Structures are given as C-alpha cells and as structure tokens.
C-alpha cells in the first residue's frame, strides 16, 4: 500500500486490527472449510460411482426370456432339436417316450405303464376297429382303383402307429449312440451354426403342420357342401357325419358318440398320415447336418498340410456317422417305404380324379390345394432324404484337394471308403433315397397314369351312393 499517503495508511491499519477475526472464529472457519471439502469429495466419489454403474448397465448384455435363452444357447444336438417335435407327436398318440425335452439323452425312457404308452395302445386299438369297418364296407361294394382309397389311408396309418411304437422302444438307445457320435465330431464354431439344425427342423414341422391344418379345414368345408347336397335327413350335422363316417354307419345306426369317435379318429389319422413324411424329413435333416458338420471342418483345412493323425481321426468320425445312418435306416425304413408308396398311390388317384368335372368351387379349391400339397410334400421328402447321400459324397471333394506332401495311407483309405460306400436312407432296402429317385418316381407316376387313363370313365364326384373319401 505504498501508493497511499502515510496518514491514511495508519488509519487503515487501525481499522484492520479492529475487524480482525478472533481465534474462535478462525477455528470455526477451518472446520467449515474442511467440512465443505469433505462434502465435495464425497459428492465426487458418489458421482463417479454412479457413472461407473451406469456404464456397466449399458454394456451388460440384455437378459433374454427363458425359452429364447435356451434356444440361443443350444448345444447343436439332434436330441435337443427334435425334442419339441416328439412332444407334439405324443399328443397325437405317436412316439410315447418320456424325457424328450430333457437336456441329455440319458433322460429318455420307455415304459409300458406310462400314460403316453397307454394312450398310444388305446388309439391303435381304435384304429384297428376303424380299419376293419372300412375293409368290411369296401369288400361289400364293387372294388376299383379308387374305392380302396380308405383302406390304403387307414391301413397306412395303422402300420405307422405300430412301427412308431416299436421305434419308441429303441429311441433312448438310438439317441445315446447319436449323442456319442456328435460328441466326437468337430465342434461348432458359432452359436448360429449350433442353432441351424434345430431351426430347420422347427420350420419344417411348423410349415408342414400349418399346410396340413389348412388342407383339413378345406376338406371339412367341402364335406359340408357335399353333405348339404346329399341330405338324407333334416339335420345338417347328422348329414355331415353320415357322409364323412359312412364306414361306421354302414354296419350300425347313427348315434352321436359314434359320430364324434369317427371325427376324432379322422383328425388324428390325418395328422399321423402327414407326420410320417415330416418324420422322415426330420431324421434326414439331422443325418445330413452331421455330415455337413464334418465337411465344414474339412473345408476349413482344405489345401493345408495336415498330419496323418488328423486324417485318421476324420475317417473314424465319418465311419461313425455312416454307422449311425445304417442304424437309423434300420429303425425307420418301413416308415419310409410306407411314406413313398402311399404318396405314389394318392398322387395317381388325385391326378386321375382331376380329369373329372368339379361339382363346386369349394370342392375344386380343396382338391387342387390337396393335390399341390401332396406333390410338394413328396418332392420335399425326396430332396431332404437325398441330402444325406449328397453330403456324404461331398467329403470326396475335399479329399481330392489334399496336398501331395500330406498324402498318406490314411487319406487313401478314407478316399476309398467314401467312394465305395453307398450312404443313404432306404425303403426297406428296395430303393435308395437319392436325387435319381425323384426322376424315377416321376416316370413311374406318368407310366401308371397313362395306363389308368385307358380305363378311366368320367364319374360324378358327388355320387351320394359312394363315400365322400372314395
């Protein structure tokens, strides 16, 4: 303060001494200052903790629902992929196996005392009665290529039910062996590849059942139209059951319990008739995916020098998948045989009926939808079944790319096994399901159709004296 006059400077010093703080005041100021700094520090730490927590929450993966999370964390096994499909089949008196939705095949079991098995046996007994009634009606009327349609339909359903019951007894052992083969294969690298087989099986089952349900609804609409045209009584509901369950009321008088039993039998038989094709497709998808899993590993090391132990391990894995194919083929070959022969017969019948004049729009819509669905389903079964053979032969392409430096006796042995083996599903060993079979079936249908046309007569599709399903 040298810029102030001396007199004014002395007065300012005296004033400063007067207003100077006492020791108590200074202590209070220090306490207040330390408390302020402490509060500021605590608020900073709380803010920092809040920011860190918010950052962790933002970067934490979202919690998925239980069902989606289980599907996302699929282990890629066939047992897990086919579990819900078999559970759905059990509702329709097929494959009475306990533990189909379990995590491991060791949870599977079959018991004659299980309620699933009892329901299956009861429906088989019901199907035997229904088949006997249809057989009795057909044998007491003029027999033709078209009139035996109910016998073929119900006989196929009954045979598939018996084979499925036999397969249910073998299913736990088959799935344990399948699981052991899967465990030894090269593991999937991504979760998407693990889910691919299960997703394909679910979509095939969903689309197949939706189309089957649509066909059945159109069939009921057409049957209602037919019953209103051939009205033998004043009650339209009774007319509907009399026409659609004529094999029952051919030997007995009309009653509501028998009518409901006949409708129940028809709905379940229709599902089983469609399900046998879907089951062959599902098994084919599972087997072809195992070959594809091995081929993906061979493709990753294509053209790279690998040790003989690598090729020995892959050859053993390929051989195990081939053994699995043989065991599954022995278990389902009769179902495959029934599926293809059934489709062949019904395609011929439907094509022959297409030459007749359609009596109504509802009948025409149902007829052509059923025909297209039948042909498409047969083609789909053939292509999915042929994929097992295609994937088994694809291995040879990667073996031919082995470098000269890596060629060894194990590679040669592996190549010879792939060339010499005929790996494919069969129909009771009568035919192999390959792509060539599609052309063979098409040629057979054309041949039979040309023969049948020679004896064809334009019949009235709404003849009230014959069965609606004939």
Question: Helices and strands in order, then pairings?
Answer:
Layout: H1 6-19, H2 23-59, H3 66-72, H4 78-91, H5 115-139, H6 149-184, H7 191-229, H8 236-244, H9 256-300, H10 308-353, H11 361-399, H12 409-420, H13 435-454
Helix pairs in contact: 4-7, 5-6, 6-9, 6-10, 7-8, 7-9, 7-11, 8-9, 9-10, 9-11, 10-11, 10-12, 10-13, 11-12
Structural write-up:
The chain has 470 residues and is mainly alpha-helical. It has 13 helices and no strands. Helix 6 (149-184) runs parallel beside helix 9 (256-300), helix 6 runs antiparallel to helix 10 and helix 10 (308-353) packs antiparallel against helix 11 (361-399). 28% of the residues are buried. The model has no long low-confidence stretch (mean pLDDT 82).
Short précis:
The protein has 470 residues and is mainly α. The protein has helices at residues 6-19, 23-59, 66-72, 78-91, 115-139, 149-184, 191-229, 236-244, 256-300, 308-353, 361-399, 409-420, 435-454.
What's the story with the biggest beta sheet? Answer: none
Instruction: List low-pLDDT spans.
Output: none
SSE series: HHHHHHHHHHHHH
Q: Helix share of residues?
A: over 70%
Averaged pLDDT, please?
Answer: 82
- Report the structural category: mainly alpha
β-strand percent reads under 5%
Annotation field: number of helices:
13
Counting DSSP E segments of at least 2 residues, the number of strands comes to 0
CA-based shape: extended
If you compute it from the alpha carbons, what radius of gyration comes out, rounded to the nearest whole angstrom?
37 Å
Distance, first to last CA: 124 Å
């Amino acid at each position: 303060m040298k810029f102030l006059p001396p007199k004014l400077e002395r007065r300012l010093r005296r004033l400063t001494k007067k207003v100077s703080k006492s020791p108590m005041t200074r202590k209070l100021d220090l306490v207040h200052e330390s408390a302020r700094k402490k509060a500021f520090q605590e608020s900073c730490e709380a803010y920092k903790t809040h920011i860190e927590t918010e950052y962790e929450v933002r970067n934490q993966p979202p919690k998925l629902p239980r069902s989606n999370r289980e599907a996302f964390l699929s282990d890629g096994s066939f047992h897990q992929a086919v579990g819900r499909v078999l559970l759905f089949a059990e509702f329709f008196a097929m494959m009475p196996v306990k533990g189909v939705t379990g995590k491991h095949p060791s949870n599977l079991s079959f018991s004659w005392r299980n309620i699933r098995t009892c329901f299956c046996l009861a429906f088989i007994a019901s199907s035997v009665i229904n088949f006997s009634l249809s057989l009795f009606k057909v044998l007491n009327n003029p027999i033709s290529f078209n009139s035996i349609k109910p016998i073929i339909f119900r006989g196929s359903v009954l045979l598939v039910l018996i084979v499925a019951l036999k397969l249910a007894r073998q299913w736990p052992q088959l799935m344990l062996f399948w699981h052991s083969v899967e465990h030894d294969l090269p593991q999937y690298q991504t979760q998407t590849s693990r889910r691919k087989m299960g997703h394909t099986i679910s979509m095939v089952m969903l689309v197949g059942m939706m189309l089957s349900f649509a066909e059945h609804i159109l069939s009921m609409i057409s049957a209602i139209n037919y019953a209103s045209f051939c009205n033998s009584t004043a009650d339209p509901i009774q007319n509907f059951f009399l026409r659609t369950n004529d094999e029952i009321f051919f030997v007995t008088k009309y009653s509501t319990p028998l009518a409901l039993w006949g409708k129940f039998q028809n709905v379940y038989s229709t599902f089983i008739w469609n399900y046998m094709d879907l089951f062959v497709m599902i098994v084919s998808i599972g087997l072809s995916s195992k070959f594809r899993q091995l081929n993906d590993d061979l493709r990753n090391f294509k053209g790279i020098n690998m040790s003989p132990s690598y090729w020995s391990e892959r050859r053993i894995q390929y051989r195990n998948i081939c053994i699995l194919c043989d065991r599954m083929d022995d278990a389902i070959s009769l179902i495959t045989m029934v599926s293809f022969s059934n489709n062949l017969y019904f395609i011929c019948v439907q094509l022959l009926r297409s030459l007749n004049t359609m009596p109504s729009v509802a009948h025409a819509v149902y007829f052509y939808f059923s025909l297209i669905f039948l042909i498409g389903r047969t083609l789909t079964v053939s292509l999915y079944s042929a994929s097992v053979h295609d994937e088994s032969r694809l291995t040879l392409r990667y073996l031919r790319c082995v470098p000269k430096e890596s060629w060894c006796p194990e590679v040669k042995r592996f190549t010879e096994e792939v060339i010499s083996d005929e790996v494919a599903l069969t129909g009771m060993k009568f035919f192999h399901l390959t792509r060539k079979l599609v052309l063979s079936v098409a040629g057979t249908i054309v041949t039979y159709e040309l023969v049948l046309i020679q004896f064809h007569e334009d019949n009235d599709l709404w003849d009230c004296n014959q069965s609606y399903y004939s």
